[in-house]
Amino acid sequence: MPRWNDLSASEITLLDHVFWSSSISREALATGSSFSKSRANAAVAGMLEQGVLEPTGEQVATGGRRAGTLRLSRGLGVLLGVALGATGLEVGVLAPDLELLAHHSEPADVRDGPAIVLSRVRALMRELLKQCGAKPRDVIAIGIGVPGPVDFESGQLVNPPLMPEWDAYSIRDDLRADFSAPVFVDNDVNVMALGELWRMQRGLQNFLVIKVGTGIGCGIVCHGQVYRGANGSAGDVGHICVDPAGPRCHCGNLGCVEVMAAGPAIAREATAAALAGQSALLKQMLTERGVLKLQDVAQASRAGDVAANAIVQRAGALIGQMLASVVNFYNPSHVFIGGGIQRIGPLFLAAVRQSVYHRSLALSTRHLEIQYTPLGERAGLIGAAVLAMQESLKLVEGAK
Amino acid sequence: MPRWNDLSASEITLLDHVFWSSSISREALATGSSFSKSRANAAVAGMLEQGVLEPTGEQVATGGRRAGTLRLSRGLGVLLGVALGATGLEVGVLAPDLELLAHHSEPADVRDGPAIVLSRVRALMRELLKQCGAKPRDVIAIGIGVPGPVDFESGQLVNPPLMPEWDAYSIRDDLRADFSAPVFVDNDVNVMALGELWRMQRGLQNFLVIKVGTGIGCGIVCHGQVYRGANGSAGDVGHICVDPAGPRCHCGNLGCVEVMAAGPAIAREATAAALAGQSALLKQMLTERGVLKLQDVAQASRAGDVAANAIVQRAGALIGQMLASVVNFYNPSHVFIGGGIQRIGPLFLAAVRQSVYHRSLALSTRHLEIQYTPLGERAGLIGAAVLAMQESLKLVEGAK
């Protein structure tokens, strides 16, 4: 199996360039790198020979010479990505060019604590690797996104409000019980932001990803890099106040956007509407399913239910109000919204946009685009694999 | 006169290092640069000979060898810095190591338009240069901070609310009428942030500077660089809503922090308190001076006037409320507050702190420091000179 530990610093730079381009033509690689064309070509030839790079299927003949696109070789091994949410988990095996080879998602409750949740994650990892015909030693690195604030250096959660049992637990040591590969941990929405950064091949430099699910969080990309803040808690927008007279949040303050507009608030209002007889559809769902969840409200809204639509619009307006402050401060080029809320569809997005454009300054919103995360439900898994690959490459670079 | 255009790329890198260190020992320069010690020493010797660097006064003998600190040579020329506010302007001549050689400040009204204001700026520049015995051709570069959103590439203001006549006016062309040096324009609080970044020798990577004067703005330092946003309007925090039922702002929205807590709001409330007979001191000031300004309220507050203190505390609480949102989002290590508000003293700062610590998450504020800008009233002028020097060095680097 080819190992990149033997590569030179300039070869690693080229490797990084190929990774962030997903696949790239030899021409573009040679001209896009900071090396001379002949030096880049020689390095590429060497890396092809060592099996670190490989040609993709597409070969186009141009003017007699065989041009070809390159990608990271499948022979390098696989990446493991984990997207842990408050109420579900997803594990995936990905090729070095981030093709998803196998994945599985299922409900999970992070409040069961790290021992239970992570042993299930490890079992799924082994199972999925087997499905792909890969072995634990083939794993290049593991990336995991978690729904709480992370100290990035130690890879540990710090006072996570949704998962107190995980405070200062070493996810790294836990996963290393089965795998010798390096483990990288980050906040779930930072990981989604990293995934979108990769998808756009770093084409956007300053954008935000907002995740709305059980909580509300924000991933920040600044000057083309994920920005984590002085203590790793940057993007903690769920506790921005949108109504000083609003209900009390678990953080102790009144009127946080999270307590008023995240998944549980939407489900709670839908339950109240069902019980108050404001919606036959929500009432029927409640009777059939026992409880209403965000996805039920999304389904009712898409079906045109008036009460569900009012709840969705109110949540969108409140989240837009929070976003207006953030947009005035940060002036991003794009805001991508992801998480469970994405299932609602265009109505929620329209309410958010209206609220932001109403409250933000003209200059901040002149070219602002607000849309759902293009990677959709895969943003977390892809992002976790990008984290794994990016940080592994940094480790190798650092050792040069 | 020595010219750095002739320097090599690695010499420029060393020059940049010396500039950001203010002054630096030869030892520290050789070890702090990415070059080998012998290569760095040779380059330094050459730059001393060319008169680009010079030893500072302090020479310390250590172990028989003469150690010495270095700075950018006075022979390189001078920098011109301009800090333009809504109601005043300041012009300074600075040495390449940012020692202030001459400066002058006076009231000015930006609403008089660029032609009038900038002709006064040019007159002051000529006068101050003469005072220093310098000539227009000695000017290395000019930096200017202006109280509105700037398109950094073109150096032009874009829809500035406080100075509409300046929209798309070319400050560069205007100042170039008298000086052939390059002119760099940025928003006033970005310039202050750059000044503080230089003062700390880039020791802090992620911090904010809030300016409270006629308006309220924020300079953002991210990953050790000033962050200007997708359209140059990042940090426009004055229009973050702190009270949905508050008064209407000139931007059209209700309850913006600027309309409720900036200098004019504080002066307006003080006038009302004086007229309502709530403060003998404010009434006396109003009678004597005809109008009350922020500095009058500051003076009354420092004298212990109860009505002035209540006004100051309310403004601090509102600005703190806005800052709490910003701190939750950005998780800076430090927030520095500058502008006219700085004259009020500790009472205002205490109100801001209380409000931020009350509303922000524990993790965001665990190590957060909130203080007045250490450069104080010089932040704008120093920052403008840093802008001039930094961008000039980039021009030279770009030409290599």
Automatic annotation (TrEMBL), chains A, B:
The lineage of its organism: Bacteria, Pseudomonadati, Pseudomonadota, Betaproteobacteria, Burkholderiales. It comes from the Bacteria. This is ROK family protein.
